[in-house]
Amino acid sequence: MSLHPSLQTYADAWTHSVDAISELVSPLVEGEWNRRTPCPGWSVRDIVSHVIGLDCEMLGDPRPIHTLPRDLYHVTNEHQRYMEMQVDVRRHHTAPEMTSELEYTIIRRNRQLRNESRDPGTKVRGPLSTEITLEEAMRMRAFDVWVHEQDLRTALGRPGNLDSPGAHVAKDMLLSALPKVVAKKAGAPANSAVVFDVHGPVEFLRTVRVDAEGRGTIDGTPSLGPAAAFTLDWETYFRLACGRVSADAVADRIKTEGDPDLTAAILRSFTVTP
């Protein structure tokens, strides 16, 4: 038996990004592990701790028994508390400890993927004691690891891989959330359309259409006379959608047309990651 074809895309994307992360952090000296990243509240060490921790959970390892400090300003809900546990437990680990654990975790996960024969619909452990399918879990890991690779690249001044396999997984993940952003969170009017024209290493044109009942759908056809339209580059798009920058901070990289109140509401609602 081998990995199901529908899972191979996510395995390949995860491998590409996690290998890039290993290459980025292996030469770092101790002080560089403390650099701030665009991910709120997390340093380079924290990002790598998160990657290690969640891949250990994919391996079925027990979660650490650990009490979080009360003064973590960036931890404001239960999902963030869940994610912070694997991070805080490693906050005082040295650079050699971090790189060796990362390398060992990658070796273990690669072995797991080589031997993975489960059906994509198999239920596995998700965050906060939830159950999700294996396919969803692997898709989320590929997305998560690519986004955090980009966090590290920004912190370390090493741009790249904006069009890697993980970038295309991220594009699909973020686009799937766009109808909710436009129709529900931003409250676009019924029977309206909003167009997103994204250029750069990953390019796409998508229209979110809101029906008479206020439900949003997305397709790749243009719309004549949309209520609002956005033109921006791929890096700005995913950094906004992942909460790495505010719309005000990148206003010079976004061209908007149409109803100014609606465009402002969409940009305020653009972040879709927890």
From TrEMBL:
Residues 169-264 form the MDMPI C-terminal domain. Signal peptide: none annotated. GO terms for molecular function: metal ion binding. Residues 15-153 form the Mycothiol-dependent maleylpyruvate isomerase metal-binding domain. This is Maleylpyruvate isomerase family mycothiol-dependent enzyme. It comes from Streptomyces minutiscleroticus.
